[in-house]
Amino acid sequence: MNIDAMREKNRQHWIHPVSSWLDQEHSNAKLLSSGKGAWLRDAEGNDILDGFSGLWCVNVGYGHESIVQAAAEQMRRLPYATGYFGYASEPAVKLAAALADIAPGNLNKVFFTLGGSDAVDTVIRFIKLYFNVTGKPDKKHFISLQRGYHGSSSTGSGLTALPAFHNGFDLPLPSQHHIPSYYPYRNSDAQSDDEIIALSVTQLKEKVSELGPENVAAFFCEPIQGSGGVIIPPVGWLAAMQRACKELGILFVVDEVITGFGRTGPMFACDAEGVSPDFMTVAKGLTAGYAPMGAVFIADHIYRAIADGLPSGELVGHGFTYSGHPVSAAIGLEVLRLYQEGGILENGRKVGEYFGNQLGKLIDHPLVGEVRSRGLLAGVELVTNKALKTKPDRSLKLGEKILAAGYQNGLIFRAFGDDIIGFAPPLCCTPAEIDQLIVKFTKSLNDVLTTKEIQNAI
Ligand code: PMP
After folding, report:
1. With a 6 A CB cut-off, is 401 part of the ligand 1 pocket?
2. What CA–CA distance (Å, rounded) separates 63 from 448?
3. Does the N terminus or the C terminus of the chain have fewer Cβ atoms within 10 A?
């Protein structure tokens, strides 16, 4: 099919995830056709540096032949095996064991999902079951952070706290509540790291007290808010929130769908703070985007309480046809090998430091209010007045314009609204590729800065 025909079919038939349906009917899709390492090639033959690892998932980079082989071998031998009715396949068993091995603390049980949204939904269902089984059936309220993202399933998207995921969908549910994001750059009530952490703890305590601790089940958070705009809490925030949850008698759930598998440096962001939550969700980097798969880690004490609390033989009615899919699991095993023995995690740590230093230099750019990063995850705040931290007026469509300039300059990244740019380059990047990313991004900022409209606005 030629490119124009493909774009036309796309306009006519494919409803894209999180898209404006109306705009989609008039859009020209950017058609991607192949990839190698940190680079993509589009249908017109342009080479583009992927500064976002697909959708923060292709951590090992594109075109790993060993992953293709692992998938092909598994497809040839056994393309599908259910986990229902006592059946199991070797890759799923091995992957569950390998994950338990690397997981923080006592997260030794793994439930496989197809991605992050159903991992979050699985946790919600298991928490309800846990409190029902342990005789606390009133504990049914859930708290998360404003600007948090926890997927777009029918229940989980209520814990997500971004307007587009609630508007028109009758969400959040009455049992879902949000406390403010710590958002250091725009936190008008707290300045120092200690104050920001203390404020979050106070806000959680106040919310639990308002709802009644006997009614609150859990607090959900990401170690770094991803889709909310790569908002990074002070070091110590995650551990402080875990301590607060313990004190309050509520469960602590960490959503590592983005931060898992080396994105911020350590294997899991929880590792950096010695945190071991009651539940942890992962997806994306688990298979590095080569096949769909997510997982829920369950702490031993939660698992035991459910297992022992149910009568022998009673089914836990939760599962998917593709839970523990053997091809995805075989891919996951090879991806884990690449992270560890293949040195990709180590490379990501080293290059992450270089990336943070180089990107940080953009703070001198007239449109940049803040550059923040941890490992290979970064956010850039766009402003039209640095001293006043002025958000760009929506009519300027600054984020959208910089994104478009980026693609023209051969670089993919992401814009969150009009005022934040996000980066998540593959962990396999070289320092030379980081240099190219910086050059291309700087040029994109300058291309937009020099337009008359922006000159008038700054
Ligand atoms: N949780 C977090 C923190 C995420 O970033 C995402 C996806 N961006 C999800 C859950 C949902 O994952 P999926 O898109 O695989 O359903």
Report:
1. no
2. 33
3. N
Supply the pLDDT for residue 391.
Answer: 97
Q: How far is the CA of 106 from the centre of ligand 1 (A)?
A: 23
What ipTM is given for this predicted complex?
0.99
Nearest residue to 91 (alpha-carbon basis) of 344, 337, 426: 337
Class of domain 66-340: alpha beta
Class of domain 31-63+343-457: alpha beta
Q: How far is the CA of 115 from the centre of ligand 1 (A)?
A: 7
Q: Where are the domains of the chain?
A: 31-63+343-457, 66-340
Q: Does the CB atom of residue 114 touch ligand 1 within 6 A?
A: no
Whose Cα sits closest to atom 12 in ligand 1? 116
Is the minimum distance from the CB of 255 to ligand 1 under 6 angstroms? yes
* Percent with pLDDT over 90 in the chain: 99
Tell me the average pLDDT across 376-391: 97
- Asked if residues 303 and 294 have their Cβ atoms less than 8 Å apart, the reply is no
Output the CA 164–ligand 1 centroid distance in Å: 15
Q: Which residues contact 104 (CB under 8 A, 6 or more apart)?
A: 268, 270, 271, 274, 275, 276, 277, 280
Q: Is 161 in the pocket of ligand 1 (CB under 6 A)?
A: no
Average pLDDT over residues 423-450: 98
d(CA 443, CA 409) in angstroms, rounded, equals 8
Residues ≥6 apart with Cβ < 8 Å to 213? 248, 249, 250
Check residue 372 and give its pLDDT: 98
Q: Mean pLDDT in the chain?
A: 97
Q: How far apart are CA 55 and CA 288, in angstroms?
A: 10
The response to whether residue 149 sits with its C-beta less than 6 Å from ligand 1 reads yes
Residue 338 confidence (pLDDT): 98
Please report which confidence band the pLDDT of residue 45 belongs to, taking 50, 70 and 90 as the band edges: very high
What is the structure's pLDDT at 273?
97
Paired strand residues for 12: none
302-355 tens-digit pLDDT: 999 999 999 999 999 999 999 999 999 999 999 999 999 999 999 999 999 999
Burial readout 206-216 (b: 16 or more C-beta within 10 A, e: otherwise): ebbeebeeeeb
Cα-based distances in Å from 250 to 255, 400, 455: 16, 40, 51
258 alpha carbon to ligand 1 midpoint, in Å? 7
Rg (CA), the chain: 22
